[in-house]
Amino acid sequence: MTVKLYYGDNRDTDCSYKVRRVEGFQTGVKRLDLYKANFLEEKWERVETLPEDTAIFLGSRSDNAVSYKIPRRQDLVVGGGGVRGNTVYFTPPTNDGYLYAYDVGDRSISVSLPCSKANRPDYSEPHWIIPLGCSSSTDDPQPEFDISPDEIGSEQIILSTGNDDSSTDHDGRHWSYDIPSELLSDVQSRLFGADRCFFRLACKTWNSIFSSVVSTSSNVRFARNHSFPILVHKGLDGEVVSLFNPITSVTSILSLEASSLRGAVIRCSKHGWLLMSQGLGGDQHRLFFFNPFTEDRINLPMLSYDLEGITFSSSSPTSFDCLVICYTALWQQVVISFIYRGEHQWTQYEVMSDSSNFMSPFSNPIYHKGLLYFMGKNADLCIHDFEQKTTITIELPNRSCTSVQRSYLLECNGKLLSVLMGHMGKVLEVYALDQEAITWKELDNLEDNMLFVSAASALSATNSGEKISGLGNKVFLDRFKDKDGVFYSLATRKFHTFWSGYNNDDWCNTKEYINCAWIEPSFKTHTKDELQW
Question: What range(s) does the KIB1-4 beta-propeller domain occupy (predicted)?
Fold first, then answer.
């Protein structure tokens, strides 16, 4: 990966910011680190957030950057919407016209195409210019909701105003006022797709109490009754994580009082556990397993370098044979570290190989049937024999996705699958590995299977045993359109949402969270001995 530093001066506040942009090969930004100049001590200090009225604009070159204080009740219009504070706006290295916005508060990256009809030479580079006069958009009326008729069929949508005589009783009260809001919230949390739409359209009262953020109990109840993964996202606050249910499009907030997760990064997920890391300064990193549903935690020995990818074996971390493997790539060699449960020190060895083969920032390795599998930056598959310490590389022949921007590895029904995505997701392909012939076979239909992909974890589930129709043959992403999850349908070859009516050939006008992972909920309790590594 590469690192670029940007410097921007804010004339209104007489301060300077520095942005450290970490990029993956052909994948854009992996993360952003912010620094503010301390002029008294003459040093740069790491900051976790920007002022609510400050935005930073980055160009494709390191010398094209500026920070700006947004005037009160005034917005800059960018991409059809007002510029937000506490946000970093930047353009990708490819200069393809897309605009990215990094929300520092919730660690999410949104993408849009503000000048889709503009003719731009291929060699041109965008340059930020702050106008003297800014148009205000704060007083523009905001719609209460935006529902596409295509989402629920061809029927006409009629919004009840609640002012007609038929909707009131003899006391003049609307008939829906007497229904407890707690009951309504519980009902809407159990609805899907079109039923949730009709629920909101019943009357203004029901629409006003509707919220995509509900109590944690509804998501926990759904997780206990169904075997679908849930997306876990952790922002800047170390004691709060959010749980997103991709089937109901419901997000709930989980407060963690008994554990300190500030600064922790989600690295991997499997068997209901998150494998996380915390930087301790210098090259020291603390690794630990964490179950957000039970708040159980298992600490691992310190690791002396920053890791690129990590995974653990098919056994739960509480099992005696659990194995954790991680790696980092250094020029023409790869350092692989591993540790078994019960050990107190990591074992390391070097593999002489082209390190670029191991550098896929959006895919963790997989330990599958005694072998370690990596997805390289060009979507080549690297198979590492853990005992023999040898590595072979397999190419994906005749693929439509010639320029792979993201690649994922996962297990599904005992088979190893790969998901390849082109620029902006305009091409998405799924392959299955024939382990006997050591070749890839493209899959056109997943049938009842569902894939859930993110940088930290890629999981699979089947809908064959569930009573919810229309969920199979889909790839669920860690992306959102408004507050609704985005998925890719192999049947339509497009990106969709269950709720907002999103229907697109790519993932433009969506956002993704950086520090998130899919997890298979587990509510199993463990003894103190089991929680000791």
Answer: 253-477
Residue 141, both tokens: 């009326």
What tokens were used for 372?
A: 């370690």
**Both structure tokens of 364:** 């963790």
Name the phi and psi angles at 205, rounded to 5: -65, -45
In the chain, domain spans: 2-112, 149-211, 214-519
Beta strands (DSSP E) in 154-237 are: 213-214, 230-234
For every one of its 533 residues, what pLDDT tens digit does the chain have, with 9 covering 90 and above? 444 555 555 544 456 777 776 655 444 566 778 888 887 887 888 888 888 888 888 876 666 777 777 776 454 555 445 788 889 888 876 667 788 899 988 888 999 888 766 666 555 666 777 666 543 333 444 333 343 434 333 333 333 333 444 445 445 555 555 666 666 666 766 665 556 666 666 776 666 655 544 455 555 665 666 678 999 998 766 667 888 988 888 888 777 765 578 778 899 999 999 999 887 655 667 899 999 888 899 999 998 777 778 888 878 899 999 999 988 877 667 888 999 999 999 998 887 666 555 566 567 888 888 888 888 767 788 888 878 888 888 877 767 776 778 889 999 998 999 999 988 899 999 999 988 878 889 999 999 999 999 989 999 998 866 567 788 999 999 999 988 999 999 999 999 998 778 999 999 999 999 889 999 988 888 999 999 99
Radius of gyration over alpha carbons of the chain, in Å?
A: 24
* Topology of domain 214-519, CATH: Neuraminidase (2.120.10)
Q: CA angle 319-321-327, nearest 5°? A: 110
